[in-house]
Amino acid sequence: MSKLQHLQEKILDNISSIILLFDAKLNLLYANSSAEDLFSTSVKKLTGANAVDLLTCPNDDVSIVFERDLSNDQPFTERELILETLYRKHTVTCTITPVSESNQVLVELQKVDRQLRISKEEHIIEQNKATQEIVRGLAHEIKNPLGGIRGSAQLLESELPSPELKEYTEVIIQEADRLSKLVNQMLGPNQIPQSHEVNIHQVLDRVRNIVVAEAAEGIKIFEDYDPSIPSLMADIDQLIQVFLNIVHNAVQALGSAGKIILKTRIKRQFTIGGTRYKLVLKVDVIDDGPGIKADMLEKIFYPMVTGKADGTGLGLSIAQSLVNQYHGLIECSSRPGETVFSVLLPIGNNHG
C-alpha cells in the first residue's frame, strides 16, 4: 500500500460518516471504521457481503433503491431512510454515488438519530451538573443546623440527671448522625480519583462476586465480554461503586428470579455529549425484569427519585456523577422484559 493510499484510509477511518464501496454486483469491497459501529461487526467480516443483506430497509427493497439511484449515473441522496441492522433500526441520510471509471458504487451513510442522541446526552450531562450544584447547596444548608442540633443534644445529655431522660437525647443524636450520613451521600464523591490502569473485566468480576453472594439463588448473572478491550485509566474503587449501584438496581428489579448480562464492547469514532473519541468502552448491564415506567425513565438519575419503597434514590445519581468525572455517561433504555444501563467511558486521551 502506497503512502497516499495509507493516508486516504486513515482519513476515512477518522470520519463519523459510514463509507461503503461496492462492486458492480453490489458486493462490499471496502468499509471504514465507522461501519463497524453501525453493523456491530468488524470490517473484515463485512467485506464481501452484498448490499441487499447489509442494508435492510423495512419500507423499501434495497436493490430497488440502488437501481433507482444509479439509473441516471448521477449521485443521489435518500433522506430519512430507515435502515435496519442486526440489533436496531437507524434513520440515515444515504448518498449513493456511481464510480463510472471502475464500475463501482460509493455509499455514504450519515445517522440522523446520532444528532438526536448527542442532544439527549448533552442534556443529561448539563442536567446532572445543575442538579449536583443544587444538591450541594442544599446539603450544606442542612449540615450546619444538624451540627448545632447534635451539639446541643450532647450538652443537654450531660446535664440530665436521669438515665431515662438521656434516652431521648440519644435518639436526637442518632437521628442527627443518620441525616448527616444521608446528606454526605447526596453530596456524592468527595475524594480526588486515584487513577491507575484498570481492566474493566476485573472490576465487573468483583462486582459479580459481591452481588452473587447477596442475591437470591434464582438470579443468574452472565458475562458477554470482549477480551480485546484495553485497560483504561480510572479509580478502581469508584468504578466498582458505579457498577455495584447499577447491578444492585437490576437485582432489586428482578426480585427472586431473573437474568442479568454484563456485556462489554468497544465503540470506535463515538461521540459522547458532542465530543468525539476514537475509542470508547461501552458496558451494558441488561436485565429481563419488568422494566422502568416511562414517567420514571427521564428522572432516574435525579437524586432522591426512586421507584422503591425503601430506596434513597441516590445510587444512580452518584454513579452518573462518578462516570461524568471521566467524561463518560450512563444511559438507560427500558421496556418490559429488557432494561439496559449503558456505561460509556472514553479510553485514554483519544479525542477524534
Give average pLDDT, whole number.
79
> Per CATH, what is the topology of the largest domain?
Heat Shock Protein 90
> How many angstroms does the end-to-end distance come to?
24 Å
**What structural category arises from helix and sheet content?**
alpha+beta
Q: Given the structure, what is the number of helices?
A: 11
The overall strand count is 12
Account of the 3D structure:
- The protein is 44% helix and 27% strand.
- It has 352 residues and is of the alpha+beta class.
- A hairpin with a 5-residue loop joins strand 1 and strand 2 (28-31).
- Helix 6 packs antiparallel against helix 7 and helix 8 (200-214) packs across helix 9 (236-254).
- The chain is elongated and about 100 Å long.
- The mean pLDDT is 79.
Note the main attributes of this structure.
elongated, 352 residues, five-stranded mixed β-sheet, Beta-Lactamase, Heat Shock Protein 90, alpha+beta, five-stranded antiparallel β-sheet
Secondary-structure topology with pairs:
Elements: H1 3-13, E1 18-22, E2 28-31, H2 34-39, H3 43-46, H4 51-54, H5 62-70, E3 76-84, E4 89-99, E5 104-111, H6 112-159, H7 163-187, E6 196-198, H8 200-214, E7 218-224, E8 232-234, H9 236-254, E9 257-272, E10 275-287, H10 294-297, H11 315-324, E11 329-335, E12 338-346
Parallel strand pairs: 7-9
Antiparallel strand pairs: 1-2, 1-5, 3-4, 4-5, 6-8, 9-10, 10-12, 11-12
Helix pairs in contact: 6-7, 6-11, 8-9, 9-11
Compact overview of the structure:
With 352 residues, this protein is an alpha+beta fold. Helix content is 44%, strand content 27%. It is elongated and about 100 Å long.
